[in-house]
Amino acid sequence: MTYAHSPLTAALLHSLVPVVLPPEANDLADDVVAHVALTMGALPTNFRRALITGLYGYDTLAVAWAPGGRRRAHQLPPALAEAYYVTWEHGPTPAHEQLAKGVGQLIKLACYEHPAMQAALGYTPAAWIDKVTRRRLEVYGADIARQERSVIEPDPLRPPLKAPRAREVV
Amino acid sequence: MVALPRPAVRQDRIPAGVTTRDAIHGDLVLDADVVVVGSGAGGATIAAELAECGLDVVIVEEGRYYTTRDFTADASAAVRALYRDGGATMAIGDPPVLFQEGRAVGGSTVINGGMSWRTPERILDRWWREAAIDGVRAKDMEPYFARVEKRIHVAYQDPESIGQDNHLLKRGADAMGWKVIPNLRNQVHCAGSNNCAFGCPTGAKQSALVSYIPRALHFGARLLSDVKVDRVTMHGKRATGIVGRVVGADGRPGHRVSVRAKLVVAACGAIQTPALLARSGVRSPSGRLGHNLSLHPNVKLTAVFDEPVRGWEGVHQAYQVREFEGEGLLFAAVNIPPGILAMTSHPRGPALHALMQDYDKTVVAGMLCEDTSTGRVRTIAGRPQAFYQLAEFDAQKLIRGVALLAELLFAAGARRIATPFAGVPELTCADDTRALYARSIPRKAMEVVTVHMMGTAAMGGDRARAVTDGHGLVHDAERLMVCDASLFPTPIGVNPMETIMALATRAAAHVLDNHRQFA
Predict the structure, then answer these.
(1) Same structural domain for residues B25 and B45?
(2) In chain A, at which end, N or C, are there fewer CB atoms within 10 A of the end residue's CB?
(3) Per residue in A8-26, pLDDT tens?
(4) Does residue B24 belong to the interface with chain A, where contact is any CB pair within 8 Å?
């Protein structure tokens, strides 16, 4: 499913990046927001619509939040954005809490899936996978080939009812 | 450069016998002896067993056909591709429980951890005694387990594939004097890439994708991928086939697909199977279709050590701590990538950084809880929605399990531990673990996940209490069979893949023994 943020959703997510993520991730805000779009594209349509509606509600209800000075959430300065997020995080209903939690999860996932953040953590799985894959094939090639042959060896539970429709696996 | 041998089960391209959406250019009608909906642990197994004996089998899978070479360390891309709804599937309740289902050829076996355990004898005895299922006790099931274990190559890990996170778990268990055992896994010289949940990039994990599916195809089965089955077609109470739609690249329904068959097997897992049957108008006389949902609630702890751990270097869950098996608690080390660890952790802002900056010194340990409460899958506008309320007894069991597991991790040398409970400060010493018992931890503060959904079309000898008979044939319907974890009358307390496969092998034997009934 192809999904793109509306300008409002993108602006709101941008404003939430410094709330949810550590300062080290501030420079990655554009990439984080783009990654959130990828994840939202994989969600079921109804779920995504509900999430977008929730984000709209989060944004507009900030107008009624006294400390916000009648601004919408995406217009709040960082300190107030944080305080407003907390009111949802510990919100009056489970729906408030779930929305804050869910959006926070999407942003956290996007941040720590970013190659720059992973490199900063020393997380290098691709190199490890490459190394152990090669080692496995070098050391255990014969055993691996034996198991692969056994996958298609006949081993009937009983004599066939009809002649099997044997096909070469290519 | 020396050319390395590549796995021979054609892990780099789509094999003959598989038809993907790219090859379906119009409405399609097929005839077969058996149509199997779903290609995971249950569907692939029964398809291979029946095809081997000469039956004409068509497997219909909603997900894509991916090859081993498609699987990389890009976890979030894998989740979007291989997991239903991008992994955002949730049972509604207090707390909500995030669950994962595979949606790809091979089903959830492509994304599971590869734990291969027989059903505990006490569970099989219970099924025999309480659910009145004949031929399901350990001695009866022995040949089916043995057959499955040979097919998916169940074995212990090679020592060099075991990473430091698992060594630390074992060190902690040994220090506590607790029972810890090496895990049995369906693998051939697993390299320890620790990518099980995102598709095995080496082909070592013997998921259905590289074991039962190629076997079924070799013996003549046909597989349609990218086809979502709308319903089972019925003539009165007799199942006559399925109808579905091709799933386009944009997720929209495309050409219509019909398969007419003498036997229909629903093997879509404990969430999708009851919905498929409900959409098809199947009404269980027991009224229990979709009920009896068990989840094996899982929670995780994040323990930071002084020493380098690099948990991604080494196999997932090399050991299981079985000391508290009698209480329905299992512990294991379950490294997860940073994005998913951050996503499922409570801290945010600088506190999140404080947790994540020590990622390379972190052991993520998980706990499986055999649950006592049950939930339900309802079908709403054709889609399944799970509801599950964690019982207070099980919530207390989770707290006890977390305290015990934290104690183990401190015994292994952990310096601080983040719990799965929002509002509970990090634990910094073993005394803190004992304080957990005294805390009031509301269920809504618990971060609970699962990959083991079971029981929603339970088998049993009494049609007033069970949805299917002891072989999975739906009561009050003809030629309609269930073949997945929906069948479990109770949770099993261990990883369910081998149980599903053994029941599928047994179901295949029943079909073959009674083939005239399905002719």
Answers:
(1) yes
(2) C
(3) 999 999 999 999 999 999 9
(4) no
Pick A132's closest partner by Cβ from B4, B150, B192: B192
Q: Which of residues 319-348 of B touch A (CB under 8 A)?
A: 337-345, 348
Give the span between the Cα atoms of B339 and B88, in whole angstroms. 15
Low-confidence residues of chain B: pLDDT under 70:
1-12
Chain B hits for A95, CB-CB cut-off 8 Å, are none
* Contact check, Cβ <8 Å, B444/A129: no
Do B200 and B218 lie in one domain? The reply is yes
Residue B383 in domain: no
Q: In sequence order, what are the beta bridge partners of B227?
A: B246
Peptide bond into B95 cis (omega under 30): yes
Q: Considering the domain boundaries, does residue B277 fall inside one?
A: yes
With CA atoms as reference, the chain A residue closest to B53 would be A160
> Is residue A165 included in any domain, yes or no?
no
Assessment of whether the complete model's pTM goes beyond 0.90: yes
Contact residues, chain A, for B215 at CB < 8 Å: 151-152
- How far apart are the C-alpha atoms of B477 and B232, rounded to whole Å? 12
The pLDDT value recorded for residue B104 is 97
CATH of residue B417's domain is: 3.30.410.40
What is the dihedral angle through the alpha carbons of B141, B487, B103, B24, rounded to the nearest 10 degrees?
Answer: 90
Q: Are residues A26 and A95 in the same domain?
A: yes
Contact A169 B313 (CB under 8 A): no
**Do B362 and B245 lie in a common domain?**
no
Nearest CA among B309, B363, B314, B310 for reference residue B157: B314
Beta strand pairing call for B57-60 and B222-224 = parallel
Number of domains in chain B: 2
Which among B5, B161, B201 is the nearest to A129, CB-wise?
A: B201
Catalytically active residues of B are: 452
- The rounded distance, in Å, linking the Cα atoms of B333 and B84 is 25
Sign of the Cα torsion B43, B49, B51, B56 reads negative
Is residue B187 in some structural domain? no
Q: Are B349 and A2 within 8 A, CB to CB?
A: no
Res A159 pLDDT > 80: no
Residues B319 and B243 in one domain: no
The 10s digit of each residue's pLDDT in B320-351 is 999 999 999 999 999 999 999 999 999 999 99
Q: Is residue A56 part of a domain?
A: yes
Residue A91 scores a pLDDT above 90: no
Please indicate whether, in this complex, the C-beta atoms of A125 and B337 are within 8 angstroms of each other: yes
Q: Domain for residue B274, yes or no?
A: yes
pLDDT at A160: 72
Mean predicted confidence (pLDDT) in A5-9: 97
For A163, nearest residue in chain B (alpha carbons):
B54
Look up the ipTM and state it: 0.92
- A130's CB contacts (< 8 A; 6+ apart) are none
Q: What is the reported pLDDT for A61?
A: 96
Q: Which residue of chain B has the CA closest to A1?
A: B250
All residues of chain A having their beta carbon less than 8 Å from the beta carbon of residue B202 are 129, 132-133, 136
Domain interval for residue A130 = 123-153
Give strand pairing partners of B205.
B187
User: Total domain count for chain A?
Assistant: 2
B396's tokens: 């207390």
Say what the alpha-carbon torsion angle B235, B237, B240, B241 is, to the nearest 10 degrees.
Answer: 110
The verdict on B478 and B408 lying in the same domain is no
Q: How many CB pairs under 8 A join A and B?
A: 225
Q: Which residues of A touch B96 (CB under 8 A)?
A: 98
The domain of B307 spans 162-182+298-370+391-445
Within this chain, do residues B278 and B173 fall inside the same structural domain, yes or no?
A: no
Last residue of a domain, one of B445, B467, B491: B445
Give the pLDDT confidence score for residue A142 in this predicted structure. 95
> Do A106 and A130 share a structural domain?
no
- Test mutation, B99, B193, B228, chain A, max A CBs within 10 A: B193
Cβ pair B189:A148 closer than 8 A: no
Q: What pLDDT, on the 0 to 100 scale, is given for residue B3?
A: 36
B212-249 residue pLDDT tens: 999 999 999 999 999 999 999 999 999 999 999 999 99
Pair A41, A71 in one domain = yes
